[in-house]
Amino acid sequence: MIYGYVRVSTDKQSTENQRFEIENYSKAKGFRIERWVDETISGTTNVSDRQLGRLLKQIRKGDTLVTTELSRLGRNLMQVMSFLHQCMERDIIVLTVKERYELGNNINSKILAFAFSLSAEIERNLISQRTREALARKKAEGTKLGRPKGKKTMQVRLSGKENIIRKMINEKCSMNEIAEKFGVNRQTLRDFLRDTFPDWRKYRYIK
Asked: Looking at 9, 48, 159, 174, which residue is catalytic?
């Protein structure tokens, strides 16, 4: 059995790109994916609590698992190595699209998997460290960190609703009616009008 495994961290991301890459890879290799496993979950979550963990219990000797890259399997060295170790011990082959790895139960595969996982974890730690240092520097310089109050509410709840809002205003709907429809307060609506419509001033006096 040949399995395709795709994972994204949040529901705002799509697994379609990963599927596309795996399908193209499998066609080039002359095989097809017989079963797909998709999940939306952080790679830091323990493998046993993910669909990947359930798949590991079902997959059998001689089966193949295809994923876009080793980082889809986990977000730290021990997770990835533990998973690969179990696969190699059971003669399960792991193929990665981007790195072009073919990992089986041999010493070269184990060395390669270890080296990649270690370098990936080091790079993530360095990025995290640089981010913390940059934020600390900005804070020390007096830069106000974080999102402006109310900005997310406007962007998430009102963005893309410009035509509807203008139509309601033209129909003489009150500010309260419009704000209630979109689940925001009057001030948020006023700020949105000011930031969105060049002629926003003519809406300032809507009751």
From this structure: 9
- For residue 9, indicate whether it is catalytic: yes
DSSP designation for 47: G
Half-sphere exposure of 164 (CA within 13 A, CB side): 11
Contact 189, 180 (CB under 8 A): no
What's the pLDDT tens digit per position in 35-70? 999 999 988 888 888 999 999 999 999 999 999 998
Q: Which helix (H) or strand (E) holds 179?
A: helix 175-182
Q: What number is the average pLDDT over the span 140-161?
A: 64
At 146 the pLDDT is 61
Structure tokens at 141: 């310089």
| Pair of tokens at residue 55 | 């798949």
Positive or negative: CA dihedral 134, 153, 189, 160: positive
